[in-house]
Structure formats: structure tokens, C-alpha cells
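Class prep. Write one:
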Amino acid sequence: MFTLFFESREKVLLVRYSGVFTSEDISMLDAVTVGIVAQEGYVRSIFDCTDVRIVAISRSSLSERARKLRMNPGKDRVTVAPQQEIYELFRDYAQAQLDFGNGELMVVRTLGEALEMLRLSNPDFQPIAVNPPSTA
């Protein structure tokens, strides 16, 4: 499950994951991101895993995912992962993306570090609605 926030001045999308992080979360975020990019252009991103209890995605699935072309090419991305296991998982994912030529994904322990990496001093993140893709 995730909630979305957007900082319009700096064009930064904040994705806050919680509970169990699944492949469905990634697929749903991909679908939502298409609309955000269509409306805002390419954006920088923070993926906050602070409230994730369990990652229900295998390392091999994440490695496969790392080969997928980025939806916001050339824009900074930071994952916040204070939990050691999740931190290591995303460090491996970030390396796989880099090896594939998908640019750097920074992985940090706190949201404060992520804000610092993106040089955001007083962000005004506003919630945005998540409209799941239609299955009509």
C-alpha cells in the first residue's frame, strides 16, 4: 500500500509505502506515474519505505524490474529504508539499475537525508489522489 504526495515548486513525487510492499504496489505506482508525468512532465522521486514491515517481492523479481526503463529518465530518485534488510535489498536494486544503464538510485536511511540529497529545504508536499487504473 502507498500514499502519494507532490511538491509542485520542485516537482518532487513522494511515495510513502506502508505495511507489505508488493509487486502490485509497483504496478499500480507505474500506472499512476504515467498520469503524473503526462500532467507535470518528468519529476524527481522519493520512495519512503520507513513504514514497510515486509517486502513481499523476491530479489530475482526486483532484479528483473531493474532492467525496465525508467519512467522519469534523468531525474533524481532516492529510496528511504531505515530497516537493514530493506536497505540492503534496495542497494542491490540500485546497483542492478546502474549496471543496466538506468541511472543512479540513491538509498538512504532517513527522509531528512533524502530531502538533503534532493536539496529540498522547506518542501510543501501535498497529498494527491491515487486513482487505480480501470480494468474495463
Summary: Strands lie at 2-7, 12-21, 44-55, 77-80, 106-108, 126-128.
